[in-house]
Amino acid sequence: QNIRATKLNLPAYHGLTEAEAINDFRNRILNNTSHYETMSEADKDFSWIKTVDGGKQVVLNKIFGYLPGRIASFVMNLHTTPKSIYLSRHGESKHNVKQMIGGDTDLSPHGEEFATCL
């Protein structure tokens, strides 16, 4: 399912059937497996980030500081499957009722209702 969702639309697979593309991608994984190194207890003193099952699990080890933290945040927010993102203005605020602009007031009852429906 992960291969179907993330790899079939890549330019490298244009013109191939779904079965051919999946087979090719699985062969690429097998060919690269010999170059992988599994993290072990001996690596506990190093900083590393490990993703498991396409990012369903992320393991961090000795991640300290600004840049390593930003990299970890980036890796944890990668998505391999398409997702919808919806943006909305806030519901009506107490300032909106008074025809005021700006501020940081609570929502009006109508705004609360909007938030609940949203």
UniProtKB/TrEMBL annotation:
The keyword ATP-binding applies. It is found in: Plastid, Chloroplast. Residues 1-82 form the 6-phosphofructo-2-kinase domain. One of its GO terms (biological process) is fructose metabolic process. PROSITE patterns: PG_MUTASE. GO terms for molecular function: 6-phosphofructo-2-kinase activity; ATP binding; fructose-2,6-bisphosphate 2-phosphatase activity. InterPro entries: 6Pfruct_kin (IPR003094), 6Phosfructo_kin (IPR013079), His_PPase_superfam (IPR029033), P-loop_NTPase (IPR027417), PG/BPGM_mutase_AS (IPR001345). This is 6-phosphofructo-2-kinase domain-containing protein. It comes from Hanusia phi.
